[in-house]
Specification:
The complex is a heterodimer of chains A (285) and B (356).
Chain A (H helix, E strand, L loop, with lengths): L1 H39 L3 H6 L14 H9 L2 H32 L5 H12 L3 H15 L5 H26 L2 H9 L4 H12 L1 H17 L2 H6 L8 H11 L4 H27 L10
Helix pairs in contact in A: 1-13, 3-13, 4-5, 4-7, 4-10, 5-7, 7-10, 8-9, 10-13, 12-13
Chain B lengths: L5 E10 L2 E11 L4 E5 L6 H9 L6 E6 L2 E2 L10 E4 L11 H11 L4 H15 L14 H13 L5 E5 L7 H18 L3 E5 L2 H7 L2 E6 L2 E6 L1 H6 L4 H6 L6 E10 L2 E5 L4 E5 L9 E6 L4 E4 L6 E10 L4 E7 L2 E7 L10 E6 L5 E4 L2 E2 L1
Parallel strand pairs in B: 3-8, 3-9, 6-7, 7-8
Antiparallel strand pairs in B: 1-2, 1-4, 4-5, 9-10, 11-12, 11-14, 12-13, 14-20, 15-19, 16-17, 16-19, 17-18, 20-21
Helix pairs in contact in B: 2-3, 2-4, 3-4
Chain lengths: 285, 356
Amino acid sequence: MRHRGREGIEEAIIRILRIAGILFFIVVVAFPFYWMVVSSFRSLQELLMNPDNLGLDIRTLDFTAYGEVLFEHGFQQYIFNSAYVAVLTVLLSLSLATLGGYAVTRLYFRGQAFMSLSILVIYMFPAIVLVIPLYVVFSWLGLRDSIHVLILVYLAQTLPVALYMLRSYFQNLPAEIEYAGLTDRCTRLGVIWRIVIPLSAPALTSVALYTFMIAWNEFLFSFLFLDSPEKFTLSRGVVQLAGSVHLSKQLVMAASVLVTVPIVVLFLFFERHLVRGLTAGAMEG
Amino acid sequence: MIVASLTMKSITKSFGKVSVLREVNIHVEDGTFCVLLGPSGCGKSTLLNIIAGLTPQDSGSVLLDGESVDHLAPRERDVAMVFQSYALYPHMTVAKNLGFGLRMRGVDREEIEHKVHDIARLLGIEELLERKPRELSGGQRQRIAMGRALVRQPRLFLLDEPLSNLDARLRANVRLELKQIHQQFRGTVVYVTHDQVEAMTLGDQIVVLHEGIVRQQGSPEAIYARPADRFVAAFLGTPEMNLYSGTIMIREGRAFFEGKGFSLNLGDTLMDHANEVIEMGVRPEDVRTTHGAGLGLQAEVEMVSNIGSEIYVYARIGRERITVKAPKDTPPKSGQTLFLTISRDALHLFHRGRRL
């Protein structure tokens, strides 16, 4: 019976921890998010009258804040800029990391082990250490106020982790499937394109999401590098907005929603691809 | 179908400091089913990968129809490989798996479909064509793997332990079927296995590999009847050959094999090996049992094993053990004394590991 009592205590602790975890999540993440969404759907008048009203009335949803943010404060352009930067970063990062990750796992060349090891070292430099020298260098070169330079910087930031993730995934792919491809008349690139990439869909999805998030949310570099408002990315735009409009809290909230929602939607859409293993059925024993 | 002969000239390969293949020379005539037989780690799979071009050799040359293919990439060698793990493409249907090699060669769609269906009919897998590999059983996957090789009609088939993941019953069936398919297609096959039964039943030619060295090559019958060295003698045959070490003694103009606690008359052979230590082997089925005392070796029966089709007797001669295939009609009992006779022709004698 003592044993039973012990298990009971353990279960109780787990239950308490679970509730505590959920509460923590609600306080730290869900509530601010809810506050943000609710505030973005209020009119300025209502916000000023009832600043601490937490309820959301579906009948009085007010979309004017979104309209203003999108069409009067340039967020149409910012969304486009952010999407352009993020998508291009994802595409470049995926293609480079696929080729690089494949090279260090499957091909043999001088310095392969060193290359493989040094991938993560690059990631050890914190962005804040790099940002000032890069600022100076790109200023000299006259390349600073450019979206494409931003892409280059994001690429440098995301590529090490992308390479690292793909490398570990490739190492676990059975080499014999690739051998089969090679004897079936594929070239190396053919094997990568027709066999490795389809089989790595879960890893590629994770890498794409990760890269997209970094590029979409990044603030430090875009804050320092971009001067012309027509080149601003979303996070830069939000800060700009927050600094310029003092009263219209709902505008900042609407802008924040515009930053957050695409990421959430992307995650929900691709989540099921992340966990599924695709090699089931290929190998025996 | 274009069928190539295969020649390997002094193939050598090491991984780091480990020498895997040493001066391997093998010739396989076109249309021959050649089995590379050896225990695991003998280098046979490495040799297969070298033939396919997947692993480069350190030195030596691979020739198809007398022409070197060393400079050719795997895809240019026109060989098909069946892997132990099957290595099917998991993201493609069975039909796509079978047709992949043809598609890569630029064969047109209709012809691919036609050929895929022919092979599927031959292997009895027509109803599986639209399935994915993960929906198939082990035996079905194995069939797809073979079909993928057959459909391409390559110059050379390479099979790396293709049956080792099947259960025993299925393995025996597929083995037979493989033999039939080969008799029908007459392709050149190099088949790697550690299973001597597979080697004996499938091979037109067997190459025994051990520690990266070709120990013996020839027909299954020849290798079984006259193993070239002690390793081959011990490796082929179930139950194993009985092997004893002893000394040749000459007495009264006759040579005797003096083992541990027993002595065997070898007649007037081996007179020039007097006082040398040699090894003597005899297969369980070559030992005759008699009940008459005074004839041959005296043996005490320790255990009798009846496996249904055969009866094996485990007995003691001197301080050694011997396995004997016993007659089914009058099986001995444990504790009984038997007298064993062995004809001189049935003895395998090895000096320093090599056949005398």
